Amino acid sequence: MQRIPRDQARKYAFDARDEPLLKVRPGESFEIETFDASTGFFKTADDKAIPGKRPGFDRVPAMANPLGGPVFLEGAQRGDVLVVSIEDIIVENFSWIAVGPRRGPLGESTRWPEVSQEYTTKIFKHTPGASGTTRDGTLHFSDKITWPITPFIGTLGVAPDREVTTSLDGQGEWGGNLDIRDVTVGNRILLPIHHPGALFFLGDVHASQGDTEFTGTAAETCATVRLKLELIKGKKIPWMRIEKPQSIVSVFASRPLEVAVETATINLIDWLVTDHGFSATDAYCLVSTCPDFRINVYQMCKIRHLSFVAGAELPKRYLPK
User: Fold this and answer.
1) How many folded domains does the chain comprise?
2) CATH assignment of the domain containing 88
C-alpha cells in the first residue's frame, strides 16, 4: 500500500504548484501518517503554547496544521467531483489541548484569570480497546472523566483554483481547516475539483472534539489515516458535502454564523432539488418542518481569518427511493 510517511507530511498550504507525493488510481487505498497540529511540539504538560518558543510561530500566519500531500488522482479533471472515503483512523497514544493568554474566547478573561494569565497544556492519555489499537480506545481527560476516542480529520481539501491558502486559516468550497467531526471513518466527503489530478491534502487529526472547538484547539494528535479517492465525472457542486450512512450534510463556512447556517441550508435545498427529485417548494418547506433536520455548528474559532463552519443535515430516510 502506498503511504506518505509522517516526516513528509509537513506542508502548510494548499498549493497547486507542489509536486505530488503520491499518484493513485480511483478506488486505490493508501495511507497518510499525519503530525498533530503543532508538528510534534507538544509532548508533555511542560510544553507551553508560548509563541516565541514554538517553531514556525515567527511566521505570519503561523505554521500550524501540517498536511500530507498533494495526492494526484489519475483521471481527475477540473469540473469533476472528488469523493473521499475514509476507511480507518488510528491515533497515537496521546493527544493535547493548549490554552492561555490571547488564546480562544477566554484568552483575555478577567473573570477566570487562570485561563488568561497562564499557559496551560493538558495531555490526554489514550488506551487501546478490545482490538488492541486506539481504533476502539479510550481518551482519559482526567482520572475520573473518560470517553471513547472519536477521531476525525480537521483539515483536508484539494488545491484551490487560483489562490494559495494556508492550512491554519484557509477555507473554501475546496475544503480547508474546517474541523468537522463528521469527516471520519465510514463517511464520504465530496469536493469540487479545480486542477488535473485533484491535488488532495490531509492533516490535523483530532482524537475527539465537541461542536465549535471553543478554545481553538481540541484533542490534537498524530494519526495514521487510510482512505481512497474516487471520482464523479462532469458534476458540479457549490461547496463541500458529506454523505453519512444515514444522512446527508451540506457544509458552508462564513461570518457571521447565520450566513453559514443559511447558505448551508440553501445548498442542501439545491442538493435535494438537483439530485433527489424534490421540487424547490417541497425542499424549502421540508427543511422548515422536518423534526429531524439539524444544523451542526462544527467550528466557531476566532483565529485570524477563520470563518464559522455550519452543516445542514437531513436523514436519508426522507429521500425518495
Assistant:
1) 2
2) 2.60.120.580
Percent of the chain, pLDDT > 90?
A: 90
Residue 119: which residues within 8 A CB-CB, separation 6 or more?
A: 48, 49, 50, 98, 99, 100, 101
Any domain includes 264: yes
Look up residue 131 and give its three cell numbers.
Answer: 482490538
Instruction: Please tell me whether residues 111 and 202 are part of one structural domain.
Output: yes
Q: DSSP of 82-112, one letter per residue?
A: EEEEEEEEEE-SEEEEEEBTTBSTTTT-SSS
Residue 288 in 3-state DSSP?
A: helix
Asked whether residue 187 is assigned to any structural domain, the reply reads no
Question: Which residue in this structure is represented by grid cell 500550524?
Answer: 64
Domain range for 30: 2-175+195-232
- CA–CA separation, 184 and 15 (whole Å): 24
Examine residue 87 and state whether it is found in any structural domain, yes or no.
Answer: yes
Express each pLDDT in 203-245 by its tens digit: 999 999 999 999 999 999 999 999 999 999 999 999 999 999 9
Do 160 and 253 fall within a single domain? no
- Looking at every residue in the chain, the average pLDDT score rounds to 96
pLDDT, one tens digit per residue, over 287-302 is 999 999 999 999 998 8
pLDDT above 90: residue 261: yes
Residues 6+ apart with CB under 8 A from 174: 14, 157, 158, 159, 160, 161, 191, 192, 194, 240
Least confident of 107-116, 122-131, 256-265, 281-290: 107-116
Other residues' Cβ atoms within 10 Å of the Cβ of residue 107: 16
**At CA 206, angle to CA 27 and CA 173, rounded to 5?**
60
Same domain, 209 and 265: no
* DSSP-derived 3-state class of residue 154: strand
